[in-house]
Amino acid sequence: MSFAPELVVASSDDELAALGAELLGRAIDAAVRARGRALVALSGGSTPGPVYRALTELSLPWRDVVFAWVDERAVPPHHPRSNYRAAAAELDLDGALRAASTLRMRGGEAELEAEARRYEASLRALFGVARAVAFDAVVLGVGDDGHTASLFPGTGDVEIADRLVAAIPARPERGLEARLTLTAPVLREARLALVLAKGASKRPRLEQALTEGPLDEVPARLVREVAGHVAIVCDQAAAPAG
Ligand code: 6PG
Fold it and tell me: Cα(45) to centroid of ligand 1, in Å?
């Protein structure tokens, strides 16, 4: 089957936030109607924040929503680099969205490998043993080096096939702290992959991501393999040519 993502090019930051939130909101609503709950995996990075904030303004069945994380840095939850902290603040999880449930990746654990296994077990329990871990929506970004989630190029991260959650070691030569991440087999099962990208540095990466080629060179190419719908919401600077 050919890869046919939905490409939405926003003309302003506000529009990007509103359109991203609308797509996410629709996926949440449809999942709750169809299956009684919506399981959503959130990315960190700078782009999703305004989308999460816009999402809080929608009227959705929050008590039936479970937020999990796509990836987390090896830091405690109150740390400025914590993806949990960033999303929890933007989603107002202590306020407007307090009815939603969360499944936090504990990036502050000394044994990241053990935490990866614990998180994997939580996902298996959440989705049901022997069922595919198919999130209703997964929010993804694209890094300037072509990574997505915490699956980095030239490392083989994206080829991890026997785990749902992986502990990614620190790579100080690249300025990267250790991380936890959902693996490619999980991201491939998503019913909706919402890819958010902003700024000119993302354009070549997005273009590569949409074009066939080695996965380990541009892990964001994983979006080509997602089972469900792929929606790319970007600004004009990041919009792929053609
Ligand atoms: C993270 C991520 C990562 C992110 C991209 C894009 O924790 O850093 O989850 O994969 O989505 O690096 O980040 P921006 O939104 O900042 O461009």
Answer: 3
Atom of ligand 1 nearest to the CA of 198: 17
User: Atom 12, ligand 1: which residue's CA is nearest?
Assistant: 143
Taking the model in full, what pTM does it have? Answer: 0.97
* Average pLDDT of the residues of the chain: 97
Question: 18 vs 1, which has greater pLDDT?
Answer: 18
Ligand 1 atom closest to 73 (CA): 7
Q: Concatenated DSSP letters for the chain?
A: -----EEEEESSHHHHHHHHHHHHHHHHHHHHHHHS-EEEEE--SSSHHHHHHHHTTS---GGGEEEEESEEESS-TTSTT-HHHHHHHHTTTTTTTTTSEEE---TT-S-HHHHHHHHHHHHHHHH-TTS----SEEEEE--TTS-BTTB-TTTTGGG--S-SEEEEPPBGGGTB--EEEE-HHHHHT-SEEEEEE-SGGGHHHHHHHTS-S-TTT-GGGGGGG-SSEEEEEEETTTPPP-
Checking if the pLDDT of 213 tops 70, the result is yes
Q: What's the pLDDT tens digit per position in 24-40?
A: 999 999 999 999 999 99
User: Ligand 1: distance of its center to the CA of 57 in Å?
Assistant: 23
Span 94-122, average pLDDT: 96
**Distance in Å, CA 168 to ligand 1 centroid:** 15
Q: Ligand 1 pocket by C-beta < 6 Å: which residues?
A: 43-47, 70-71, 83, 141-143, 147-149
Q: Ligand 1 centre and the CA of 32: distance in Å? A: 27
